[in-house]
Amino acid sequence: MTSELLQPWRPRAGEWDRPAAQHLYRRAGFGARPQELERALGEGLAPTLARLFRDHAAPELRASIRPLLATGDLELLQAWWMALILEGGAPLRERMALVWHDLFATSNDKVDDVRLMHAQNELFRTRGLGDFRALLRAVARDPAMLLWLDGDTNRRGHPNENFAREVMELFALGIGNYGERDIQEAARAFSGWGTAGRSFVFRHEHHDEGDKTLFGRTGNWDGDGALDLVLEQPACARHVARVLLEAFVAPAAAEEWIEALARVLVQVEWRIERTLEILLASRLFFSPAARRSRIAGPVELLAVAARALDASLVPKRAARLAADMGQALFRPPSVKGWDGGRAWIHSGSWIARHNALAGLAAGARDVAELDLAHGFAGSDESLPARVLERLLPEAAGQAPQAELERLVAAGGDDVRAAAVALVLTSPEFQLF
What we know:
Layout: H1 18-28, H2 34-43, H3 45-52, H4 59-63, H5 74-87, H6 91-103, H7 108-111, H8 114-127, H9 132-141, H10 143-148, H11 162-172, H12 180-190, E1 193-196, E2 199-202, E3 212-214, E4 217-219, H13 223-232, H14 234-248, H15 255-267, H16 272-280, H17 298-309, H18 315-324, H19 347-363, H20 383-391, H21 399-410, H22 415-424
Antiparallel strand pairs: 1-2, 3-4
Helix pairs in contact: 2-3, 5-18, 6-8, 8-9, 11-12, 12-13, 14-15, 17-18, 17-19, 19-22, 20-21, 20-22, 21-22
């Protein structure tokens, strides 16, 4: 039975408004263009949710990277993914791929193979909304992951514990839900797993055939057997639930939320898409605790701002700007991924965020007329309300509106671009 928290949200008259629709688009994808938001407000919640779960991916764009992989140019791969995020037509799928890239953090700085990084990214894209159990097993065999966590050096008699440790600590269980003996025995189970060229290979001569004891159970476990035992632990569903809640609801997920979503995950046989269908339609997702509770990461911040302005942002430039702000795609800082939260807005990155967003405001195609009110540019006196309606409707009547009114009263050249820049660079806009 679904928890009360996860029961469908039935908005009363007036509750399905611009802030609610923006909240959904920002979390389930990378924001909405003006025409998408207007359509959502006109059609209502249920049709909008259904559309977000329909994949309208552009196959030509997705395939466009293949002829370029031979160059070994990571910037091209970063730009390609930013293009899929900005224009690819499958925002929820790309959002989920970004979540898995952060969880199963793998960096080209060590892998040093753009083809392998692309293959792992496609793995997150093709399996990211499917069965988490299948995704975990596929990640365990992924050549980029094996190189990243030293799978090739894990051999009988000299086990390398890196992958086994991260499977338990970061990927599937979380600290406190396993012991050092479990890591040691799982490392033996994974011995012999490695790479040959750009493919997974099992080297029987390097595999430890002896009995191993994991989570109190003894047997001649191999790597698949070890993963099965990990997935059977009650902590695994809770861990995955926490990951989803922190990505889609709020960074400090309450234990009550975690338990409720973990039950759903198991009930739907670990299918991520079905779990998200329940979560994104829930009372919890639309609750005050969820709204504007996360500090936006650089990639989502740029994408949301560009889409809200209906601005054209060159993908290669967007990828570079995101890297300047601390999120270089395919180069997470460690196996823990990006710290996120307040780490996104330290003194150095804040300057980069400000400059990137101010530049976006200056270059937006409709800033000159600031066509923010359903096709009517309007007067400067109404400018503060119109800017907020487009970019930050929940802040109407609050501090940003007062600052906008002072800006407009002062006059000057390019007041429209300045007004947009003021909102985009405000602390309030950084909260999604």
